[in-house]
Amino acid sequence: MTAPSRDALPPVEALSPIDGRYRAATAPLRGLLSEAGLIRERIRIEAHWLLHLAATVPQLAGSELPASVRDRAKQLADDPDEGAAEAVKVIEARINHDVKAVEYYVRQQLSEAGASEASLELVHFGCTSEDIKQPQLRPDVEGRARHVVRSASDAHR
Predict the structure, then answer these.
(1) What distance in Å separates the CA atoms of residue 84 and residue 90, rounded to the nearest whole number?
(2) Which of 39, 74, 115, 126 lies in disulfide reach of 110, CB 3.0 to 4.6 Å?
(3) Burial of 111 by CB count in 10 Å (0-12 exposed, 13-18 middle, 19+ buried)?
(4) Where are the beta strands (DSSP E) in the chain?
(5) What is the reported pTM?
(6) What are the residues whose beta carbons fall under 8 Å from the beta carbon of 13, sequence distance 6 or more?
(7) How do residues 33-91 score in pLDDT, each as one tens digit?
(8) 49, 41 Cβ separation under 8 angstroms
């Protein structure tokens, strides 16, 4: 027996009313609060952390980022690629660690942009998994969620 697609799932079979009977109303939040949204936020945090280290602690080996690497890190910090979450999930399936999979993904992206081994060592440098998980619920995400809710509210007026 194959499971029905997520969109075809009857509301009574959903894990909660949020993804069941309120699915249409909560759809705009999916990009922020779904697992994919949380993965993209973790990618942003890892990239911001690398850029912060490179800018504020220039004495660290690898902190001098070539323009191509800095640009790629900024892209990841601003808006991770559409397929980023799926790529992270492939890595996670192999290593069985969600935050480490994000770290590996960011390293891979920066390596492809020409990062040195020393620069790659700065990804996740001095961080724990909790350091990456906790900020994903910071005011940025809350602000974007408020914007989505406000937009939905305005549409219903």
Answers:
(1) 10
(2) 115
(3) middle
(4) none
(5) 0.79
(6) 4, 20
(7) 789 989 999 999 999 999 999 999 999 999 999 999 999 999 999 999 999 999 999 99
(8) no
